[in-house]
Design a protein that fits this description.
Radius of gyration: 19 Å
Order of helices and strands: EEEEEHEEEEHEEEHEHEEH
CATH class of the largest domain: Alpha Beta
Protein name: Restriction endonuclease type IV Mrr domain-containing protein
Helix content: 10-25%
Shape: globular
Distance between the termini: 25 Å
Strand content: 25-35%
CATH topology of the largest domain: Trna Endonuclease, Chain: A, domain 1
């Protein structure tokens, strides 16, 4: 199943430049591509302050009816402004189609990583592909990186250029223990040797996010999670 990419003209409110924006499609957990609907006659707004709730939207898959959380469409203008692309009011509306009766897990479709935000999106898409539900920002924010949570899981996404340390892994594990959940770590730059050893002893799956957005298992626990899913 293919989704036609929708394009709209977007005017920057700061410098008045006109841009053509093509909305990206993301893979639903059923394997079908999903894209938010845009408002061709809407007015773009410049992003002044960011909050987690404002950066994610609910979009319904027309193939299976699942409401997924996806990044809100944005566009960078050469003048420096970040524009929030206007959306149609029916993003998550419409009648859901009957869910597939027995679908095997589809091949993972990665999100290319160009920014720290892309790394968080890639990890969230991967967790959804594994079968985790209700993905959201974690209640407790880590001192570095971004914490995301799902039902029964706490994940840490580290988009920095340094390898994750033993302390990083232990902090994630301790936070997960206080919330009685499992945990998983995603890093762009790998792990220090003692961090990998400690993760094995604590039962923490470790993944490295390559720039294609595909999580690569680092330890046996991550291999098992990748193979079996949630």
């Amino acid at each position: 199943m293919r989704v036609m990419s929708e394009s709209v003209s977007v005017r920057c409110p700061a410098c008045r430049r006109e841009h053509v924006y093509t909305v990206p499609a993301y893979p639903c957990e059923c394997g079908a591509p999903v894209a938010p609907r845009l408002a061709p006659a809407g007015t773009a707004a410049a992003v002044a302050h960011r909050t987690w709730d404002d950066e994610w939207i609910s979009v319904r898959c027309t193939a299976c009816g699942h409401d997924g959380e996806w990044p809100r469409p944005e566009l960078g203008c050469p003048c420096g402004a970040v524009l929030r692309v206007p959306l149609a009011r029916t993003d998550a509306g419409g009648e859901p189609a009957p869910p597939p009766k027995a679908a095997a897990r589809r091949a993972f479709q990665p999100i290319t990583i160009r920014t720290a935000r892309d790394a968080v999106t890639a990890a969230a898409v991967y967790l959804r592909w594994l079968g985790y539900r209700d993905i959201r920002r974690a209640d407790q924010r880590p001192t570095s990186g971004v914490g995301i949570a799902a039902h029964g899981l706490l994940a840490h996404v580290d988009p920095t250029v340094r390898p994750a340390t033993l302390r990083d892994v232990e902090c994630l594990w301790l936070t997960a223990m206080t919330e009685s959940t499992a945990c998983v770590y995603f890093s762009l730059s790998g792990y220090a040797p003692d961090a990998r050893a400690r993760a094995d002893s604590l039962g923490v799956p470790l993944f490295v996010l390559d720039l294609t957005g595909t999580p690569q298992p680092v330890n046996a626990l991550a291999d098992e999670l990748d193979a079996t899913g949630a």
